[in-house]
Design a protein that fits this description.
Distance between the termini of chain B: 19 Å
Largest interface: A-B, 23 and 30 residues
Number of strands of chain A: 2
Largest sheet of chain A: 2 strands, antiparallel
Helix content of chain A: over 70%
CATH topology of the largest domain in chain A: MetI-like fold
Oligomer: heterodimer
Number of helices of chain B: 11
Radius of gyration of chain A: 23 Å
Shape of chain A: globular
Number of strands of chain B: 10
Shape of chain B: globular
CATH superfamily of one domain in chain B: P-loop containing nucleotide triphosphate hydrolases
Order of helices and strands of chain A: HHEEHHHHHHHHH
Low-confidence stretches of chain A: none
CATH superfamily of the largest domain in chain A: MetI-like
Chain lengths: ~300, ~270
């Protein structure tokens, strides 16, 4: 009898410790990265690092602005492409598609999610890059090699389709049928009901889906690295090459480490990425809380 | 099984003598996922009165109600045969326009489902969809309908608050007002008080009794006492068939069919 109670107690405490251990990983990673990037931070002012646009490690210039703009622009392009497409597709799947179509499409989307990023990169090089260099670029009178933030954004958009669609479908399916019936019974059409009732009710969930997909997009490395050119410059147009933070780390870590502060700079890049993602999630959580309060 | 026909025909005759019945159902059969849910339904629902559909759970009462405003259309794997005439027009005819049909019927569901907007916008949702844009008219509609359901005094100072801030009972009255705002001719209630406390239930019941002079009301209920309190006519459905249809007191005090007798006495539920 007593043994059973002891076991219960033991389980409760062990599991709590395991949970804390998982959570503390984030903190440890953050602290570790901070300590590792201290040499650079001691040597140069944080503001100069963040706002500097020259990346010239040999001269000791570590301006991160090109990488910040690279990351943000590639992610933004991916979002602009993916969010509306995924929203409309999920609306179609939930509200209009036959049960059979839905049953076929959803598993297919999950397969899309399981494809390794490097394959998306190859697809980007074989298909997206030539498309932009040969067809889309010339339309806008901008000759380019195709390795650009636009290519990165397109590849990234395709990569976040699955997560976005599956969450959005789930969110739309939580809308009670009786709420739809309430709108329909007033003589509203299906589309009016979707626009004015369903999307309004589902808004917090839809935003959450976009946030999750964005968080994933921020950190995506290989596929983007393969198509976006990797030139440390601030991209001025969609057809310019860019250099996102994850690509910077993956391309250079372990090489040229003899250059002073170079490893500290890469660690700082990692810390920066962590901070961007953390802040982004924090802000979206706050916005979501506000929205849920209102709903 | 067919004892109801004589009663029903008698009712139908008296009704047709006065005017065309709002709702007439002819040879209606509904299959859901291959199961025969409603079998050969023939009915004429009397105008300007409350008709309750009673029967054990799973007998098809709600399906019967939902076929009246074509809400079954949206469920998957549903096959509907026969016709439902509203003002003499078959709502299942090929050229029937479903939004137009639904506008004629206010629906009050099991639980209140306020739309995700303010109290004011909940009421104006229907009228706006049907083209009413005039702000003064919309304001008038809101005031009239909220007064109709006795909610005006309670909410007039917070019309622009979210409808979910109301109590459940208030929400259900708001839903009724929202339905009335599109000027329906018929009110359909699907166990509309099952989520409400006794006092709110009584309020809704009294409202429905007040409204029957202007509307034809059809309610699904599983509470016999409620059927007795509010309805003029009762339809007893069992296993997808109409077993008996007649005046409330006839069905409850003097049922002709053995199954109805058992149900009314509480032996089956």
């Amino acid at each position: 009898m007593r043994l059973r109670i002891l076991k219960d107690l033991w389980i409760r405490h062990t599991f709590r410790i395991l949970l804390l251990l998982t959570l503390s990983m984030v903190v440890f990673i953050g602290i570790g990265l901070f300590i590792k990037s201290l040499p650079l931070l001691k040597d140069q002012n944080l503001f100069t690092i963040l706002s500097g646009s020259t990346w010239s490690p040999l001269k000791g210039q570590f301006g991160f602005l090109p990488f910040i703009t690279g990351t943000v622009s590639v992610t933004l392009i991916a979002l602009v492409i993916a969010a509306p497409l995924c929203l409309l597709s999920s609306i179609y799947l939930v509200e209009y598609a036959s049960a059979l179509l839905k049953k076929t499409v959803l598993p297919l989307i999950n397969v899309l999610a399981a494809i390794p990023p490097v394959l998306y990169g190859v697809w980007g090089i074989l298909f997206v890059v030539p498309l932009i260099s040969n067809y889309i670029g010339p339309i806008f009178g901008s000759p380019n090699a195709g390795y650009s933030i636009l290519s990165g954004g397109i590849v990234l958009a395709v990569m976040i389709f699955p997560i976005m669609i599956s969450i959005m479908v789930e969110v739309l399916e939580t809308i009670p049928p009786d709420l739809k019936a309430a709108s329909l019974s007033l003589g509203a059409t299906r589309w009016e009901t979707i626009q004015k009732v369903i999307l309004k009710k589902a808004r917090p969930g839809i935003i959450a889906a976009i946030v999750l997909a964005t968080s994933r997009a921020f950190g995506e490395t290989i596929a983007v690295l393969m198509v976006c050119g990797n030139i440390p410059q601030i991209p001025k147009s969609l057809f310019d090459a860019g250099y996102p933070i994850p690509a910077l780390i993956a391309n250079n870590f372990g090489e040229m480490m003899s250059i002073p502060h170079y490893d500290a700079a890469l660690m700082f890049a990692a810390l920066l990425l962590l901070t961007i993602i953390f802040l982004f999630n924090l802000i979206s959580r706050l916005i979501l809380n506000k929205l849920e309060e209102k709903a | 099984m067919h004892t109801y026909t004589s009663l029903a025909t008698k009712e139908t005759q008296t009704v047709t003598q006065m005017q065309l019945p709002h709702i007439q159902i002819k040879d209606l059969n509904v299959h859901i996922e291959g199961k025969h849910i409603l079998k050969n339904i023939n009915l004429a629902i009397p105008n300007n009165s409350i008709t309750s559909i009673i029967g054990p759970s799973g007998c098809g009462k709600t399906t019967l109600l939902k076929t009246l405003n074509r809400l079954m259309d949206d469920s998957k794997n549903v096959k509907i045969n026969g016709s439902v005439l509203v003002n003499g027009e078959d709502i299942y005819a090929k050229d029937a326009e479903v939004t137009h049909i639904r506008k004629k019927m206010g629906l009050l569901s099991q639980r209140p489902f306020p739309l995700p907007m303010s109290i004011f916008e909940n009421i104006t949702y229907g009228p706006r969809i049907h083209g009413q844009r005039d702000k003064t008219v919309l304001k008038e509609i809101v005031e009239t309908q909220l007064k109709n359901v006795g909610l005006w005094e309670e909410v007039k100072d917070r019309l622009h608050h979210s409808a979910t801030t109301l109590s459940i009972g208030q929400q259900q009255r708001l839903c009724l007002a929202r339905g009335l705002a599109v000027q329906p001719e018929i009110i359909l209630g699907d166990e509309s008080t099952s989520a409400l406390d006794p006092i709110s239930t009584q309020t809704i019941e009294n409202l429905l009794i007040d409204l029957k002079s202007e509307y034809t009301i059809v309610l699904v209920t599983h509470i016999l006492r409620q059927a007795r309190r509010v309805s003029d006519y009762i339809i007893f459905v069992y296993n997808g068939e109409i077993i008996e249809f007649g005046k409330t007191e006839d069905i409850l005090l003097n049922p002709q069919n053995e199954i109805t007798k058992q149900y009314v006495k509480g032996f089956i539920s």
